[in-house]
Amino acid sequence: MGRRKRASSDDYDDSVERSFFGMDERKRNTDNLDDEHEQPSKSKEEIERQRAKKRAKKQRQKEKKEALKKEAEEKEKAKLAEEKKKEEQKQAKKKRKEVEKKEPPLGKFIKTHKGVKYCDIEIGTGPVIQDRKKVHVKYTLRAGDKRGKIIDSSGNFGFRCGKGEVISGWEIGLLRMKVGGTRHIIVPPKAGYGNNKDIGAGVGGLLYFEVTLLHVAP
Questions:
Q1: pLDDT value at position 7?
Q2: Which residues form a coiled coil (predicted)?
Q3: Which of 48, 119, 168, 191 could form an S-S bond across to 114 if both were Cys, CB 3.0 to 4.6 Å?
Q4: Are 140 and 210 in contact (CB under 8 A)?
Q5: DSSP 4-20
Q6: Please, where are the H alpha helices in the chain?
């Protein structure tokens, strides 16, 4: 027998084939649609995560910056406080030196003009002696030094300072004295009664006064 001939193109039914390929195409289209719907959703979530990371990073940077700023402010405050403290200490030291310069150490004799010497035993807290003003003092006069014999004394002696009512050695030795203070004054003859007069300390002898300032007239 001869080989059977294939049906002509007019007799071939390709409906099944078309149906198969059509179904496959629809499936692919459906898959593509699903991918298109799913992909934007994933991208949006990813973008949101990135934005959240950026916000968190900015927040951390902001907090770090604020912390550094606060630390710098605290350091500046501490520095200013330290500088203020040093300045106060400097001023206090300067003031003490000025006081020490004006008021010699207790018990140390200071030599002034005419050979007069004085030392403060106690610093007063009241008014300072004023020139031409009347003052009242308590005093003891000894011959030579603080162990010498007592020549004279008074519990309340008044005179006007700077008027020549007492020897110049007193007026020199009482300068800047304050009420309530006690001072010892050594007066040589040239600031006292001269080299030719003897009031109990011998001719040309030193006079040793122990003086407490009681009152200064306003």
A1: 46
A2: none
A3: 191
A4: yes
A5: PPPPPTTT---HHHHHH
A6: 15-102, 168-173
